[in-house]
Structure formats: structure tokens, C-alpha cells
Specification:
- Chains A, B: Keywords: DNA damage, DNA recombination, DNA repair, Metal-binding, Zinc, Zinc-finger.
- Chains A, B: Pfam families: RecR_C, RecR_HhH, RecR_ZnF, Toprim_4.
- Chains A, B: May play a role in DNA repair. It seems to be involved in an RecBC-independent recombinational process of DNA repair. It may act with RecF and RecO.
- The structure is a homodimer.
- Chain A is of the alpha/beta class.
- Chain A has 2 domains: 49 residues, Helicase, Ruva Protein, domain 3; 128 residues, Dna Topoisomerase Vi A Subunit, Chain: A, domain 2 (3-Layer(aba) Sandwich), CATH 3.40.1360.
- Chain A has a 4-stranded parallel sheet.
């Protein structure tokens, strides 16, 4: 795509670095900004620069938070004997919106992925192990995506905590509620048979 | 969507002002930037601020251009007797990529749209009429989208130039090449019958 202006080309190039934004979409977004008042561009760039400079994470669970300790960790009504391990804050939001979990979280900040150059030390794993050692945690729930990277990360963490005598579990993997069986992939369907659950339990959810 | 940080909320709000970017996508984009080195955010915001501050338009056709006169207007091999009227530079790019047009352009910067508060004076229409009066234009081709706003804009411009004795045309509207007839909308199909073209001409394109 050849553009008639170097300035425009640079703006489009930078915009298209964002995930899911191709050159065409980037051009549409930049042209949109050019049609709007200057103040809109300034507010956007200022908000992005500010959060990048001043971003803070909860000292306990590493969720993004303006306070030292986030609202969830600070909530005395939550069960502080359970920690749910997630990849990023979007997973916290997704689980919170189910209203099915009242324990705490630990945000890793990613998954172990050698392909992308992300190793255990790039994630908040050491802090998690320390947190488990130093508090009265009874159960750790792994809620990473059921991918190769997710499973690798689960296993890496599990090895470090298996001697601490706490219960470890993963969120159930199986056929999504409301989905047609014939469209399920073979791995999921196969595992859902192997890991079948007592009928009475399935009625509860 | 409730977020755990005001800073994050502001960045997501600003990002979701962009067209086609909802709150969820905006959150994904901001979280992505937070995971990348600071330099990426700085390059993006700097590029956006720079283009917004320093954007220049061709003095003749109003396409975005770093020079006073753009490459197309400056090209002596192009037919300067024809002007194709388009909404924005993406339309110039789309028509250029067909290699079917060798005339000049005039970029209006939008369409007349009372709903969005865009009137004739917000567009480069006066400059177009002046340009036609002052040069040896023989044909004006309207290439706006075939919508109510596009048709209104075409008509508004046409009224101002109809006495100048130049030829005015619109790009052909009809069934897209390769499309199944049964899926065409009724208005397009109806017009394509009324405005049918001699068979020999259809063979050429």
C-alpha cells in the first residue's frame, strides 16, 4: 500500500503494530483522527502515554490497580484460602462476571512461550510460589487457556508447589454449555468422555 | 465493563472512540501496549501527534500530501481535462489501483450529511467549483458512494457547475463483476436493467 505522505505512512505503520489492526484498518483509523478535532488525538495519546508511564500493579495479585493492593485482594468477604491463576486481567474480568468464584486471583502476565521468548522469569511465578508459602492457601486453581503454552505453564508452577501440600485443580475442560456435540473438536470430546462427571453434579451447574 | 484502574479506564475510553473499536477491543489493544516496551507506545503517540499537527493537503486536489502539490496533480502524463470527485484518499487509492483512470482527482473530505452535522461548507466544494472555472476541465466524474449522502453531494455540486458547459458523469452502478444475480439487491438490479449498456461495450471491460 503506497501512501501519498510520509507522515501518514509512519502513523499507519505504528497503528498497524497493534494486534488485529492491518494496514487498511490502520489507515481508516488515522484518517478518522485527522477528520476529528485535534483535542481527540491529544486525549488519546495523552491517555496512552500516561498509563504506560504510571501503570501500577497490585502488590499481591499483580492485577492492574491504581492502589497498592487491589479491590479484590482487599475485600475481606472473599475467600483468601483459594487462588485462581490467570494469564491477564481480562481473565479476571471474565471469571468475575460469572459470579461463580469468591476466592482471590494471581495474574501471571502471560504464559510460558519459548516461541515468543517468554520464559518463567518473565512472569509473576516466583511471587506466586512465595505467596503460597507465606499464607494459608488451601487450593490453587489453574485457569489458563487450554493450549500447549497454558499446559506448560500450569505444569511448571505445579512442580514447584506440589510438595507444599495444597490442593491443585484446573478449570473443567469439556463441551461448552449449549454447543452441539457434532461440532466439538475430537480432543475436547475425547477428554470430556474420559473425565466424565457424576450425573448428579452436572445437574447443579 | 468495570475496570480495576482509572488510568486504564481512561485509555480504554479514548481508544474506543475510534470507529469499529469497541470497549473489549480497546482493552485488548491497551493491554497489548502495556506488555510491549515503552518505546512502542511513544512511537505510536508521537506519530499520531505529528501527523495531526503537521498534516498537509495538496493545494489543488486536497489529497493528503507532504508537498504543496501532490504527485498526481504534478504528473504531466496525466489527463488534466478530467477530474474525479471522491470522498477521501482511500477512494483515490482504490481507483489508482485499478489503473483504469489517468485523469486528476478532487478530494472532498466527506459527504454532505446533515445527520452528522456536515454541510457543504465543511467540504472542499467551493475550491472544486473555482478549480473548474479557472482551468480547462472538460469532464467531471462523480465517484462518491451510491448512498443518500453521496447522491445529495453529487447533486449539490452538479447544480453549481451545470451552466459551465462541462460534461458530468457518475461511475457506473450495477451488478458487481463476478456476483450472482440472485443476491443483488432490488434497487441495484432494477437500475442495472433501466441503465443497460450496449452489448459490444460490455465486452470491452
Amino acid at each position: 500500500m503506497e501512501l501519498s505522505s510520509k507522515l501518514l505512512e509512519r502513523a499507519v505503520d505504528e497503528m498497524s503494530q497493534l494486534p488485529g489492526i492491518g494496514k487498511r484498518t490502520a489507515l481508516r483509523l488515522v484518517l478518522h483522527l485527522l477528520r476529528q478535532p485535534k483535542s481527540q488525538t491529544y486525549r488519546l495519546t495523552e491517555a496512552l502515554t500516561t498509563i504506560k508511564d504510571q501503570i501500577k500493579f497490585c502488590n499481591t495479585c499483580f492485577n492492574i490497580s491504581d492502589a497498592e493492593i487491589c479491590n479484590i485482594c482487599n475485600n475481606v468477604h472473599r475467600n483468601d484460602k483459594m487462588i485462581c491463576v490467570v494469564e491477564d486481567m481480562r481473565d479476571v474480568m471474565a471469571i468475575e462476571s460469572t459470579s461463580s468464584y469468591r476466592g482471590l486471583y494471581h495474574v501471571l502476565g502471560g504464559k510460558i512461550s519459548p516461541m515468543d521468548g517468554i520464559g518463567p522469569n518473565d512472569l509473576n511465578i516466583e511471587a506466586l510460589v512465595l505467596r503460597i508459602r507465606e499464607s494459608q492457601i488451601e487450593e490453587l486453581i489453574f485457569a489458563l487457556s487450554p493450549t500447549m503454552e497454558g499446559d506448560t505453564t500450569n505444569f511448571y508452577i505445579f512442580k514447584q508447589i506440589q510438595d507444599l501440600g495444597i490442593k491443585a485443580s484446573t478449570i473443567a475442560r469439556g463441551i461448552a454449555v449449549g454447543n452441539e456435540l457434532e461440532y466439538a473438536d475430537e480432543v475436547t470430546l475425547g477428554r470430556s468422555i474420559v473425565n466424565r462427571i457424576p450425573f448428579e453434579i452436572s445437574l447443579k451447574s
